[in-house]
Amino acid sequence: MGGPGGGFPRTGPPRRPASPRAGADRSYRPFDLRELTMADVAFVLITLAVFALVALTAKGVAGQ
């Protein structure tokens, strides 16, 4: 009856195992700023390309 070792079960969130590198990697970020910047550049380029395609198509349709 009970948890491991016969004691009472633990309440609350489970403990994370201690990492040998705990606190050693302070440069860790959940996101990479360069990745966001490249995504922004790609979004702008695709938006401009679609806009140009629509403008050329409208110009072609109106010219006929």
Structure, explained:
This protein is mainly alpha-helical. The protein has a domain at about 30-64. It has one helix spanning about 35-64. It is rod-shaped. It starts with about 30 loop residues before the first helix and ends with a helix. The mean pLDDT is about 75.
Biggest sheet architecture: none
Number of distinct beta strands: 0
N- to C-terminal separation? 85 Å
**What is the H/E string?**
H
Q: What fraction, in percent, of the residue positions are helical?
A: 40-55%
What is the helix tally? 1
| Rough outline | rod-shaped
> What radius of gyration results from the CA coordinates?
28 Å
Please tell me the overall pLDDT: 76
Pick out the low-confidence regions: none
Helix-strand category = mainly alpha
Proportion of residues in extended strands: under 5%
